Amino acid sequence: MDIFEAVVAAHRPALCGMAWAALGRVGVLAALPETAEVLASSLGLVPHKLVAVLEALAFEGALVRTGTPARYARAGAEPATAGVDTASLPGWASLAEILCGAPPASAPPETLSAYHTHLTGIAAAKAPALWDAIGAHGARLVDLGGGLGAYAAAFVARRPGASARVLDTPEVVALAVQRGAPVGVCFAAADLFEASGEADVVLLANVLHLYGPEQAAQLVAQAATLLVDGGVLVVEDLALDGAGGPAHAAWFNVNMAVFTEGGRVYQSDEVRAWLRAAGLVAEGDGPWTGRVMDSPWCAQDVELKG
Ligand SMILES: C[S@@+](CC[C@H](N)C(=O)[O-])C[C@H]1O[C@@H](n2cnc3c(N)ncnc32)[C@H](O)[C@@H]1O
């Protein structure tokens, strides 16, 4: 189970209560029923963050969503807001202010190491199945935002003679180097938006949700520039289904509203559209993979599968 799946499983009523209380504080509850667009403009709220909260509460049944554009109304039973343990969800206490445009919450720097250790555990458990699902596409991996290199280590371990380069922030690279790089894996500090190099396989694991749609599309396009002909870009991330769930994705979407400027959880079709826009043929279900087109005339044959 992912860290946020565990948080949602343990704290779902608290998440609902905090989101409900925040909507009350910014005047949304008193203005329902209404569309998100009207609510955001009349109350001065950040539109995509408001949508994240409304959608999560609609998924939980605390709000009812009808029509196009979606209009949200109270559903009857209200989430309990008293006695909610806000200490278990740092940052979320500021949700109302963040909805009004306050800067996102930030995690204290001293938690970086524990955060990445946790991510590494999750990645190490998932990575073998990911690389088995992708199959053999060459021996050179560039892992964009690869953290402490768990996906890269699994890639190298499963492919004789393979090598991997992990790009991340200077702070994360320093942590990784301190822990010792696995054989065949090297780390470099770089801004992913300026990533360069040449790879058979490029991985973007749990990075796109940190950014708004324009930047996420830009990252996919930048990642595609690293690929050799026939190379594969792999995107591994949470995804929202068309019905506003699953629960951990709906609430992680709110978590991104709390902790990032523009980050959010996307639907797989959005990611596939970015792969196509970057000149890749999207294939398969998740993880989303894009194969670089070998020749220009393939463009006519672009088809989305899955
Ligand atoms: C949620 S973590 C995912 C880590 C790893 N890929 C995984 O799935 O476990 C996102 C990583 O992307 C890195 N990152 C995000 N934006 C970046 C940027 N613009 N330049 C370099 N690294 C970035 C973060 O430092 C972090 O290590």
- How far apart the termini lie comes to 25 Å
Topology as a string of helices (H) and strands (E): HHEHHEEHHEHEHEEHEHHEE
User: Which blocks of ≥5 consecutive residues have pLDDT under 50?
Assistant: 293-306
CA-atom Rg in angstroms: 20 Å
Explain what the structure shows.
This protein is globular. The strands form two sheets. A seven-stranded mixed β-sheet has the order 6-5-4-7-8-10-9, sandwiched between helices. It has a three-stranded antiparallel β-sheet with strand order 1-3-2. It has two domains: 3-105, Arc Repressor Mutant, subunit A (Orthogonal Bundle), CATH 1.10.10; 111-241 and 263-301, 3-Layer(aba) Sandwich (Rossmann fold), CATH 3.40.50. It has helices at 3-25, 28-31, 36-43, 47-59, 95-99, 112-134, 150-158, 170-179, 213-225, 247-259, 268-277; strands at 34-35, 63-66, 71-74, 140-144, 163-168, 185-189, 199-205, 227-236, 280-283, 288-292. Helix 1 crosses helix 10. The chain has 306 residues and is of the alpha/beta class. S-adenosylmethionine binds at residues 119, 123, 145-147, 168-169, 172, 191-193, 205-207, 210. The site of S-adenosylmethionine has 15 residues, from helix 6.
Keywords, please?
alpha/beta; seven-stranded mixed sheet; Rossmann fold; 2 domains; Arc Repressor Mutant, subunit A
